[in-house]
Amino acid sequence: MNKFSLEGHHDTSRSALIGRLWRDYVFKYGWLLLAAGLLAVLEGSAVGLLSYLVKPMFDRIFVAGNSEDVFWIAMAILIVFSARALGGLGQRALTVTVSLRVITQLQKDMLSHLVRLDTAFFIQHSPGALIDRVRGDTEQLKAFASTALINLVRDGVALMALLTVAIMADWRWTLLAMVGIPLVVGPIAIIRRLILRTTRKSRQVSSVMSTRLDEIFHGINAIKQNNLEVHEDDRFRKETGNFFKYQRRSEIGKAAMPAMIDLVAGFGLVMVVIFGSEQIISGDKSLGEFMSFFTALALIFDPLRRLSNVSGAFLAASASLERIYAVLDLKPTLVSPQNPMPIPADIEQRDIVLDDVQFRYNAEKGVLNHLSLVAPAGKMTALVGSSGAGKTTVFNLLTRLIDPQGGSVRFGDDDIRSFDVHELRRLFAVVSQDSALFDESVRQNIQLGRLEAEPEAVERAAEEALVTEYTQLLDEGLDSLAGPRGSSLSGGQRQRVAIARALLRDAPILLLDEATSALDTRTEKLIQETLETLARRKTTLVIAHRLSTVMNADVIHVLDQGQVVETGTHEELLALKGHYYRLNASFEE
Questions:
Q1: pLDDT-based confidence at 589, cuts 50/70/90?
Q2: Which of 163-177, 191-205, 261-275, 485-499 has the lowest mean pLDDT?
Q3: Could you tell me which of 353, 445, 430, 351 has the C-alpha nearest to residue 396?
């Protein structure tokens, strides 16, 4: 099984998963649930008392004509209904409060856990599928917790109370009414398995639908430019068709369970009417006894139906609970050592060394094949080469988004895996061609480089990266919203924000991955001057396809098929008339 598989709990018993949920999230609200349970007992008992009051109402008032009892019986009925109303309101308020707190905490914990998993996990699982786990599965669980659990206690008590009233009226009538129940035990067991299987399928398809929507909305421009609207319609329609199929089967299964209870109820009532009417006619039973029994029996099947619905809802919720714990049980592999080394005080004077590094994703051929190179401390080192040569993979290794399968990545003589991973990442400021912006203000997006930075430092970084050149034209200035994924800004504007973020971070090591690729020529020249000034006092690694941006680098490593094939300065490499020379010639053309 894939180490990052999200389908990992089918063999775990549902009782074990419920036990974990209780221990991890619900137990601390035990007193609130106890209070809700007592109120549910009050509400459920009221139904039994109501059916019991039917007997004196018929025998003393309607049959005997005793008008003195009218007031007291009427008041008793009013008290029962009032108790039921207060009990129902109180227990619903408490139960919903607990369920919302539990689900909210679950969602927080899932996100907190997910963001700490390895980058490889997010390569294997789409954002849409993960959103469905965090939101869809927990919402499914909430629907069960806020309604089904209420029914479980209330209707369980109501069932016992009504059954007691029915037995008090006549135990033989009660047996006759329940005679059909054993006949539906087998079919209900089959339906339960159907509900669980189809609910699992529908949740899986729901994740695929979320993935499709995520891809459509993020790629809307490409869809329009390539006339793919019909194609995307068809793909989504296929998934909605699958969801409809599985969800329909699940819902029909849930509806079938109370339907069987109704059939049993109808059969039982017929038997009681036939048998009981003879006893009333003969005088063995009073009309009040029969009406009390008949009321209890008529009411008893209502909580039975709801309890059978609880069973179906529980199965649906357990399928979501499996998926939730499948996420929470995943373990990151890129973690800090148990006893991490402190970051050396002379880190700025240490060379970055990649020694015989091997790395592959899922492909048979390695991305890096025994790669060795040195980035001298305080110097600018450039990595050039064709696409797929492994340049960006080097950056991911340095920041420990991935770990090598062979060889080592070091600061001087110290392997980077010996440091705390969070302390390690504080050493880097990264600007990539894919500028990650969030739906916050431009100022807040810059401040992500150093959250504790003073406003003056943020504004200074914005000026140096030429962000203020366009924000000063906006009504809100730096406080203008960047939009979802920076959609309110152009590609060049987004890249300037990313550069400002790196400037603000002011880390000892600067990683530039096509940092100026989205900028116009004028802006690129100005930003390049700023970055070169910044790089003079830092260890800098640069990835660039435009060789004009790395001509001034102290060292240039030329990568091809995951290996360094040439090393030198711009002039030295041109003189070799090898890979670099050919790359330079192709760009000049």
A1: very low
A2: 261-275
A3: 430
Integer angstrom CA distances of residue 417 from 362, 391, 578: 22, 20, 35
The residue behind tokens 């050919």 is 582
Asked if 150 contacts 95 with a C-beta cutoff of 8 angstroms, the reply is: yes
Domain with CATH 1.20.1560.10 in the chain: 17-328
Q: Taking phi first (over 0 means left), then psi (-120 to 50 degrees means alpha), and beta for anything else, what does residue 407 get?
A: left
Highest mean pLDDT among 14-18, 146-150, 404-408, 494-498: 404-408
Its CATH architecture, for the domain 17-328, is Up-down Bundle (1.20)
Q: Which long-range contacts (CB under 8 A, 24 or more apart) does 331-336 make?
A: 332/116, 332/117, 332/118, 333/3, 333/118, 333/403, 334/118, 334/119, 334/400, 334/401, 334/402, 334/403, 334/421, 335/421, 336/419, 336/420, 336/421, 336/422
The C-alpha atoms of residue 401 and residue 253 are separated, in whole angstroms, by: 46
User: Which CATH superfamily hosts domain 347-588?
Assistant: P-loop containing nucleotide triphosphate hydrolases (3.40.50.300)
Strands (E), 390-476: 406-411, 414-415, 428-431
In the predicted structure, residue 255 carries a pLDDT above the cut 50:
yes
- H helices of 170-184, in order, are 171-177
Amino acid at 248: R
User: How confident is the model at residue 427, as a pLDDT?
Assistant: 93
Q: Which residues are CB-neighbours of 212 under 8 A, at least 6 positions away? A: 128, 232, 235, 236, 239
φ/ψ (deg, to 5) at 564:
-80, 120
Q: What per-residue string of b and e applies to 435-449 under the rule 16 or more CB within 10 Å gives b?
A: bebeeebbbbbbbbb
The predicted structure's pLDDT at residue 1: 39
Token digits of residue 286: 């009073």
Which of 43-52, 250-259, 369-378 has maximum average pLDDT?
369-378
Examine the pLDDT at 298 and tell me if it is beyond 80.
no
**pLDDT tens-digit readout, 59-95:** 776 666 677 777 777 888 788 778 888 888 888 888 8
pLDDT top residue among 179 and 448 = 448
- For residue 181, CA distances in Å to 38, 223, 450, 573 come to 29, 57, 67, 88
Torsion from C-alpha of 176, 185, 253, 133, nearest 10 degrees: 130
Q: Tokens 């060795």 belong to which residue? A: 372
The whole-chain average pLDDT of the chain stands at 81
Q: Indicate where the chain has its CATH 3.40.50.300 domain(s).
A: 347-588
If 0-12 CB within 10 Å is exposed, 13-18 middle and 19+ buried, where does residue 313 land?
buried
